[in-house]
Amino acid sequence: MSKFNGFSNGKPHVTKIPSQFFHELLPLIDDLAELKVTLFCMWAIQQKEGDYKYLRYSELRADESLLQGLQVIDAEANPVDLLDSALEKAITRGILLSTHISLNNDNVCYYVMNSERGKVLIDQLNAGEWRPLGKDEIEILPPRPTIFALYEQNIGVLSPMIVDSLKDAQDEYPVQWIEEAIKIAVEANVRRWNYILKILESWKQEGRSRETSQGHIEQHKQYTTGEWADFIES
User: Fold this and answer.
1) Which of 56, 93, 115, 143 qualifies as a FRET site for 198, CA 20 to 30 Å off?
2) Would you say residue 8 lies in a domain?
C-alpha cells in the first residue's frame, strides 16, 4: 500500500465541494472509478478561467494522475476503459452533463457539472452559441436575450397584448428577423410594436434584404408617413 506523506504547510489551494455531495450524492455512488472521476472533475473544472467552464474528453484522457488513480483499482484493466465507464456512470447518475460538437472535422466531447449554470452551458453548446478558439478549445458566447427581454429593454413595457403579439410573431417569423426589426425600430427612434410588425410583414412579402440597418431605416420610413402613418401612430 502506498502511503500519503501529509498535506503541505502554508496556505493550501482549496477545492470547493458542495455539501450535497456528502449527504446526497456520496451515498449513491457504488463504483470507486466513478467516485474518483467525479472528484477529479470537481477539482479540474475549478481550475478553468472564465464564466463558462467545461472539460474536454481529451483533457481527461491525457491526465496521467487521473489514469494512475484509476489504474490502482484494477491493475489488469485499461485505465482508459475505466475512465470511459466511470464517465458513462457519472452521466447516467446525473453528476455530469455532456454533449458532442463537430469541430475541425473532429467530434469533440465536452463535460460540465450538473448544476443550473452547467445546464445553461450545455444549452448554449447545443444551440451553437460558441466559437472556436483552437484545436478543441471553444469560447461560449453569452446567452442571447429572449425577444420578450429585448422588447422590454429597448421598446417598452410588456403588456398582455404585446406578449401575445410577440408569441404570435415568434411562431411566424425567425427570431433573427424579430431581433433585427427591433434594432431598426430603435435606430429609427420609432419604438412601437406596429412599426416592428410592419417591417416583419414587408420582409415576409418582399424578402429580407441584406442591406445595412441604415438602409432598412430608409426603406421603412414609409411606415411613419403616408398611408401607414395613422396605423403606426396608433
Assistant:
1) 143
2) no
